[in-house]
Task: inverse folding
């Protein structure tokens, strides 16, 4: 039990470290120390750094999942309004440090996929689950005649997440909200075909 | 002169390495060796790893710049058609290794910006230059009544690049063309407000 709780502490502190400075930049000794464990003890808790990477990603995605669970439970307003509110909430989580952290799912997609098949596989299932959740609301928008109907809801949902990830990348570079404003005001409504022009 | 040419060789081989496996994952010894230089000679050629990172990014962006110079010189067909052709060309460059490499500008945005102010500053000027080039064609589309006019061309151009970068991230995860198909068929025309629905 002590071992399990130490592992959780390492995952939690390691998530913060990896989100701040990247996966490859975070050495196993620094990760162990951040979690309050001896410098050399990393491999007592994780069979490999990739196994740790998956654990960190799962921990991060728990929060993403909690946020889209709220989106799905939300029944106030139009589907588009709910999606906008959802992305506004996600965005609030990233304002600290001037958007420098971005989304761990996007960061890992950029940095870790070429070298880690196991993390890439986990990202694939995470992106599917996220897309399916967004697709429920996109489908509601389509059924209400508030979104284009010539593209399947799942396809639109995946493209919305793509646009979001791209905006987060630019925000990491610019350290301003411009890209996220553009996402909310232009990208999201226009992908849905819901803009009010 | 020999020193200069050796530096160029390290930048060229280092670009390939960094594009394949990430910046932090590419150690300075491996970078030197890839460029045919002695293992310990990296710092004879670069004052820091960040200086090398900027050189690699500049080298990479030379190609991106050559491609958008062709876009700007292109006069055949509609502005939207030219933009679509342009992104089709960019895409062809990434099909090897199943889209695993992605765009170095996006990869660096995700991985390196939190830890390197100098690389972040260079990414900022690169994104501005790229946006301005795309904006010329977006403006042509607006003037021809083929794109929405309620959002400035520069804003639309930046959002198009964001959407492109996001699609490339997903392609790195899925290793299929689905995200890039979605960009070409849905994201690009809908951001421009040019879809034919």
Result:
């Amino acid at each position: 039990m002590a071992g399990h709780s130490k592992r959780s502490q390492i995952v939690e502190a390691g998530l913060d470290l990896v989100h701040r400075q990247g996966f490859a930049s975070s050495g196993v000794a620094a990760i162990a120390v951040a979690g309050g464990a001896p410098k050399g003890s990393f491999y007592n808790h994780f069979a490999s750094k990739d196994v740790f990477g998956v654990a960190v990603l799962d921990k991060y995605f728990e929060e993403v999942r909690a946020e889209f669970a709220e989106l799905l439970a939300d029944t106030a307003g139009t589907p588009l309004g709910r999606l906008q509110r959802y992305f506004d909430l996600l965005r609030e989580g990233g304002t600290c440090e001037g958007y420098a952290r971005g989304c761990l799912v996007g960061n890992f997609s950029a940095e870790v996929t070429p070298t880690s098949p196991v993390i890439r596989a986990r990202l694939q299932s995470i992106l599917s689950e996220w897309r399916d959740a967004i697709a429920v609301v996109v489908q509601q928008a389509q059924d209400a005649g508030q979104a284009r109907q010539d593209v399947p809801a799942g396809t639109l949902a995946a493209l919305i997440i793509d646009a979001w990830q791209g905006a987060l990348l630019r925000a990491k570079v610019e350290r301003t909200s411009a890209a996220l404003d553009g996402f909310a005001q232009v990208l999201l409504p226009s992908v849905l075909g819901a803009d009010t022009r």
